[in-house]
């Protein structure tokens, strides 16, 4: 910096010696230029540094509860806030296809980063699709992706001639052109032609202009790609059924319209689906909603659901983990599927009752299908050898006629009433707004299917398919655990499923699921989302339920004792009434902060 000033001074001195006015004028111009340049550079620098230290911009967008862990797939999807589909963007902007690939962008599944000034327009457009459309439009629809399979999966050999054939069904409502076409192209590029009978696109009443003739022109010259159009917005169930009805392949293979499949994805799905008793899902990887980078998701996950019936990814059971390590290329069972991506033999799909046509727009159909499959003699599995990227979105970009809550709740009410038996009563009791919708749903034909197929009950499902579940049962105590001083053991609002330090919270009413707990025979204190109270380092914490003995609290009179003889204690905090005070395990004393009242609440 010092040298730089010296040079400038020298320049000024030499200029002063020649024609004075001219020199001053040129000096002023140089100075203005220099100041401008420095201002611009420091602004870009400032913004870059500011953004490096901050969450990415899209994190500030409003979304409810759901959370995609960047490290993997810890907790995700299930409860959406409907989007505003573009807000105040111009019609011309919304209806035009802006696909303009840049050489090399996103190749190999790499992220595409925008410049600071481009981010501003990308942000405005984000709400259209709930992903970064500017980035998507820059990446070739034929982009390359790495082979995501593990070594052991690459070694598996398939007899292509003897595998069943597939009809790939992709339904969409107002999807971006580039994202949809990249889904189609990835399937065409990476599926052996002998296996791929057809790709059926089903347009669920999209109103974006570029999804009309422009889409038809794009698929015209592709082999075996068809398009069906629904004139009314039917929702994903109705649209998938339209596709399934005309499919000619042996296996129906459903994909969302914002996926990219990788090398070798279809063979393991078709091989397993051939056996006619299974709904088989690929291992779903993450396509970033911001950069479209392809990222591996955590190896060990399976699907289940919370007390509120929100779909969740969780750690599989120990048994599954052991089998996975012994045989890493083998498909493994999952209590539920995420719903967007799976394969099933066409005959099995129809034999088990297709989809529930009473389900509208979006949501709950994945749970209904999973329960039906398991309870009616089939299975739901994930094959680690088929790897497909999917853009997980933080909120749903579509319009939901009547509102997102009404749509989702009516679907949930249907699924619960048909399949969940006593646990349907539990669900309706603690979700009165869903219960209010229940009676308007006629599910007679679905109950008929359950009877005709002699399906097992939900108790069997919980005990056999998901014995690690955290729902109340008749064998488990259910209710509130209140401290003598005040306050109840409960999970403070936060990211569902991620846990954290435990404190007491206000005891609320009998219907507040946040302070209602399951207390198991072996001494686990369980909350919704599969969290267990654990003796932590200094402070008690909410952690995913495991076999850890630090999650055992034995009831000794009015006390809860750890296996090493400490008492659960409400720490003396700032509060008058005990609410908000931390929980910990301490030496047992004659102290009312160690006295707990078990207030039973009927769970159904
Ligand atoms: N979809 C549809 N009609 C609707 C809602 C959704 O055809 O009314 C399609 C959507 O375009 C997507 C699939 O159904 O291809 C699944 O929806 P989405 O991706 O929003 O669900 P998520 O993956 O977020 O659970
Ligand atoms: Mn999706």
Automatic annotation (TrEMBL):
Q: How does it sit in the membrane?
A: Single-pass membrane protein; Single-pass type II membrane protein
Q: Which domain of life is it from?
A: Eukaryota
Which leading EC class covers this enzyme? transferase
> Could you tell me which SUPFAM superfamilies the record lists for this protein?
Nucleotide-diphospho-sugar transferases, Ricin B-like lectins
Q: Which UniProt keywords apply?
A: Disulfide bond, Glycosyltransferase, Golgi apparatus, Lectin, Manganese, Membrane, Signal-anchor, Transferase, Transmembrane, Transmembrane helix
Major localization class? membrane
Q: Which GO terms describe its molecular function?
A: carbohydrate binding; metal ion binding; polypeptide N-acetylgalactosaminyltransferase activity
Identify which cofactors the protein needs according to its UniProt entry: Mn(2+)
Q: State the similarity comment.
A: Belongs to the glycosyltransferase 2 family. GalNAc-T subfamily.
Name-wise, this protein is Polypeptide N-acetylgalactosaminyltransferase
Q: Which organism is it from?
A: Vanessa tameamea (Kamehameha butterfly)
Whichever gene encodes this chain, its name is: LOC113400272
């Amino acid at each position: 910096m010092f040298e730089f000033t010296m040079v400038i001074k020298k320049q000024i001195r030499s200029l002063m010696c020649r024609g004075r006015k001219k020199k001053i004028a040129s000096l002023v111009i140089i100075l203005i230029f220099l100041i401008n340049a420095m201002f611009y550079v420091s602004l870009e620098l400032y913004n870059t540094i500011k953004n490096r230290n901050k969450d990415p911009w899209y994190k500030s967008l409003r979304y409810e509860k759901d959370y995609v862990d960047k490290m993997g797939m810890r907790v995700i999807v299930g409860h959406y806030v409907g989007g505003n589909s573009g807000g105040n963007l111009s019609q011309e902007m919304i209806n035009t296809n802006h696909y303009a690939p840049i050489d090399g962008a996103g190749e190999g599944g790499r992220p595409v980063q925008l410049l600071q000034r481009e981010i501003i327009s990308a942000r405005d457009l984000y709400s259209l699709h709930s992903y970064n459309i500017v980035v998507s439009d820059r990446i070739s629809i034929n982009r390359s992706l790495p082979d995501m399979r593990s070594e052991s999966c690459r070694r598996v050999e398939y007899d292509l001639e003897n595998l069943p054939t597939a009809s790939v069904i992709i339904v969409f409502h107002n999807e971006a052109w580039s994202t949809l076409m990249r889904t189609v192209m990835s399937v065409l590029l990476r599926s052996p032609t002998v296996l791929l009978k057809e790709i059926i696109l089903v347009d669920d009443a999209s109103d974006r202009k570029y999804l009309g003739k422009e889409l038809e022109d794009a698929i015209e010259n592709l082999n075996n790609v068809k398009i069906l159009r629904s004139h009314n917005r039917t929702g994903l169930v109705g649209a998938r059924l339209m596709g399934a009805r005309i499919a000619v392949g042996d296996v129906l293979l459903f994909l969302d319209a914002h996926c990219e499949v990788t090398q070798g994805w279809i063979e393991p799905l078709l091989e397993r689906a051939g056996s006619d008793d299974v709904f088989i899902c690929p291992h779903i990887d993450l396509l970033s909603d911001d950069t479209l980078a392809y990222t591996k998701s955590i190896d060990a996950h399976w699907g289940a659901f919370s007390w509120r019936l929100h779909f969740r990814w969780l750690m599989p059971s120990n048994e599954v983990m052991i089998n996975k390590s012994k045989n890493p290329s083998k498909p493994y069972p999952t209590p539920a599927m995420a719903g967007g991506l799976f394969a099933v033999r066409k005959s099995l799909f129809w034999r088990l009752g297709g989809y529930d046509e009473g389900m509208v727009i979006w949501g709950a159909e994945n749970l209904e299908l999973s329960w039906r499959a398991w309870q009616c003699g089939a299975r739901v599995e994930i094959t680690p050898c088929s790897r497909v990227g999917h853009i997980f979105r933080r909120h749903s970009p579509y319009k939901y006629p009547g509102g997102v809550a009404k749509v989702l709740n009516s679907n949930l009410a249907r699924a619960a009433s048909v399949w969940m038996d006593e646990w349907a009563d539990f669900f309706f009791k603690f979700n009165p707004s869903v219960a209010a919708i229940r009676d308007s749903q006629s599910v007679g034909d679905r109950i008929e299917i359950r009877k005709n197929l002699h399906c097992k009950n939900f108790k069997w499902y919980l005990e056999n398919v998901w014995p690690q579940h955290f729902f109340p049962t008749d064998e488990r105590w259910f209710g509130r655990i209140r401290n003598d001083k005040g306050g109840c053991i409960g999970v403070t609002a936060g990211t569902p499923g991620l846990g954290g330090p435990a404190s007491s919270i206000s005891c609320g009413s009998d219907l507040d699921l946040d302070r209602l707990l399951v207390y198991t025979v072996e001494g686990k204190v369980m909350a919704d989302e599969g969290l267990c109270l654990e003796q932590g380092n200094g402070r008690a914490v909410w952690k995913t339920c495991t076999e850890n003995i630090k999650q055992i609290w034995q009831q000794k009179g009015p006390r809860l004792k750890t296996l090493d003889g400490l008492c659960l204690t409400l720490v003396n905090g700032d509060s008058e009434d005990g609410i908000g005070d931390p929980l910990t395990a301490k030496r047992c004393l004659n102290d009312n902060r160690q006295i707990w009242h078990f207030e039973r609440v009927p769970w159904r």
